[in-house]
Write a structure and sequence with these properties.
about 210 residues; Rossmann fold; 6-stranded mixed sheet; 11 strands
Amino acid sequence: MSKSIYLFATSKNKHAKSIKSLDVRYLKPDVDFSKYDYLIITSKQTVKALEQYDKEEFINTPALCVSIKTADSYREFGGNILETGDGYGDNLIEKIRELPLDIKWLYLRAELIASNFVQIAKEEGYSIDEKILYVSECSKEILDVRVDDDSTLIFTSPSSIECFLKNNTIHPDAKVIVIGTTTAACLPKGIDYIISQNTSIESCIELALDAK
């Protein structure tokens, strides 16, 4: 009998039991987009939050995007892409360092973030303002879920692990797949895991299917 695959994410996949890990509440702080040369976007939720604003105020301001998926989402929205990262927020600092110190950046972000690349950049003298566009909270779905001991569990963010562990434990017989090193760092000590080759849900699902 095949093991059940559970995907803890904000999107679904037909090959897994998709459990929404977070409920997202969007905010709309006042933003003067005209002050900035470039935007920094690290999630598709940020792109969704931008729908609240007058597009003409920012749509021609190029964005540094954390991943191909995020860049695709912003491009579909009509935005211009400055550069695309490799899926890890920590590595965006290298993209920022390629440009002059006097560039004015605006980081559009969640309330809670896992990476400190902006703090590092500021300490190096870069000008980066931050605006919180959304708040993520554990969904009732992930808090109520119960999984078989030998299930395959796919975690796609640090928060997906934190929310799952509020009411669950990871059984030694479970197969654990994580989307990247930042997510892996949030697992309890002693848990064996596999990191997907690419920072995408599709890559995680491929690993899960290969193991069935």
